[in-house]
Amino acid sequence: MAMECIATLPQRFNENKTKEDPSNFDANLLNQQSNHIPQQFVWPDHEKPTDDVQPLQVPLIDLAGFLSGDSVLVSEATRLVSEASKKHGFFLVTNHGIDETLLSRAYLFMDSFFKAPACEKQKAQRTWGQSSGYASSFVERFSSKLPWKETLSFKFSPVEKCHSQTVKDFVSEKMGYGYEELGKVYQEYAEAMNILSLKIMELLGMSLGIERRHFREFFEDNESILRLNYYPQCKQPDLALGTGPHCDPTSLTILHQDQVGGLQVFVDNKWQSIPPNPKAVVVNIGDTFMALTNGRYKSCLHRAVVNSESERKSFAFFLCPKGDKVLKPPEELAGVISEREYPDFTWSMFLEFTQEHYRADMNTLEEFSNWLKNSRSF
Ligand SMILES: C=C1C[C@]23C[C@H]1CC[C@H]2[C@]1(C)CCC[C@@](C)(C(=O)O)[C@H]1[C@@H]3C(=O)O
Ligand SMILES: O=C(O)CCC(=O)C(=O)O
Ligand SMILES: [Fe+2]
Predict the structure, then answer these.
(1) Which of 66, 72, 94, 159 could form a disulfide with 280 if both were Cys (CB 3.0 to 4.6 A apart)?
(2) Where does the Fe2OG dioxygenase domain start and stop, copy by copy (predicted)?
(3) Measured distance between the N- and C-terminal CA atoms of the chain, rounded to whole angstroms
(4) Ligand 2 close to Cβ of residue 145 (< 6 A)
């Protein structure tokens, strides 16, 4: 199995690293020091961004219309979602109900966090194998094709469903005094995304012709991830990538992006952009939900490009099932056992695979399936 081994200590890419953390990625420092980005951030020719990228036509789903129960609006929403999900798994959702003030506070605190000194950000440093915490360009995980970004990720479970640590408590434990408001805003943001994702699960269930409540109930006690993506300006955006080509291993992604633009999806054998829409969130199917639909709905290859003019920010809420749930399609979608596309698995195993054994890319689910079969054959 072609596993990308997790690098040992990465080569140093910048002599003038901060004393506290020799592997710290400081784009501003890099941008000041040279017109060339370090080699570790240069992607191979076949993966470099291209200029001639046109917008992808994705449907705009009016969630309020669907929730109104109006039969015409419901059938329009389910038809559009079904068509898009069978083809590439991406659609936009408007009238999503996320509070505008919450959104602007979320961006404000993101700005202040990522512009803080490295020693402050490193208080939340992601530790090996963990999907939460602060990561700067992933120098501690990979030795090449480094993404031009910093991230801050939180684990989230609906409090009433699971006694895991809240986002607020994580921030307070890691960052300490002075970050109470930041913890509060991302706790509220994650709670709002959780509510939105369960409504979208109702829509997806209906679009698949199964019980509306099936997937909503399946994901009620989720163990999800909220990730803040901060993409600094880059002097050589034609050589770098903010996030490399991948399919999300998770179930459903709700992405809120700022107005800069940079998200691209690989559809009809070419990269196509999803331009920002201030009134909409981008929703996409992940590998795990593709497996839950027995391959009917597609988890699609996508990436994020950067630019030399401005930084870019996005929030990705990754809806994930409770870690120990056995993931298999419902009867109505499974067909006879011989038609199963993927083996049964649990999200906790799949997540561990991406965090400790394999860098998520376009083949993650296939590589994970092979890894599972090999490990079960012993
Ligand atoms: C389960 C996850 C792993 C990643 C974050 C979530 C969903 C998307 C995955 C990721 C973004 C895909 C591209 C590679 C990756 C390493 C990254 O660029 O951040 C992936 C995330 C991760 O492993 O941290
Ligand atoms: O920031 C973006 O536009 C996409 C990020 C992404 O695909 C991810 O974090 O999985
Ligand atoms: Fe993604």
Answers:
(1) 94
(2) 221-321
(3) 16
(4) no
Q: What is the pLDDT along the chain (378 residues), one digit of tens a residue?
A: 333 333 333 333 333 333 334 467 888 888 888 889 999 999 999 999 999 999 999 999 999 999 999 999 999 999 999 999 999 999 999 999 999 999 999 999 999 999 999 999 999 999 988 999 999 878 888 999 999 999 999 999 997 655 689 999 999 999 999 999 999 999 999 999 999 999 999 999 999 999 999 999 999 999 999 999 999 999 999 999 999 999 999 999 999 999 999 999 999 999 999 999 999 999 999 999 999 999 999 999 999 999 999 999 999 999 999 999 999 999 988 876 668 999 999 999 999 999 999 999 999 999 999 999 888 776
Verify whether ligand 2 is closer than 6 Å to residue 216 (CB atom). no
| pTM reported for the whole predicted model | 0.93
Contact 321, 288 (CB under 8 A): yes
**How far does Cα 345 stand from its chain's mean position?**
20
Q: Is ligand 1 within 6 A of the CB of residue 147?
A: yes
Name the one residue in this structure whose structure tokens are 């499974």: 334
Angle between helices 100-114 and 180-207 (to 10 degrees): 130
Q: Which among 216, 68, 40, 280 has a CA at the least distance from the CA of 142?
A: 40
Query: What is the ipTM for the molecules in this complex?
Result: 0.99
Q: Is the dihedral of CA 209, 214, 218, 221 positive or negative?
A: positive
Structural contact between residues 207 and 222, judged by C-beta atoms closer than 8 angstroms: no
Closest CA to 154 of 101, 97, 223: 223
Other Cβ atoms less than 10 A from the Cβ of 23: the count is: 18
Domain 40-376 falls in which CATH fold?
Jelly Rolls (2.60.120)
Residue ranges per structural domain of the chain: 40-376
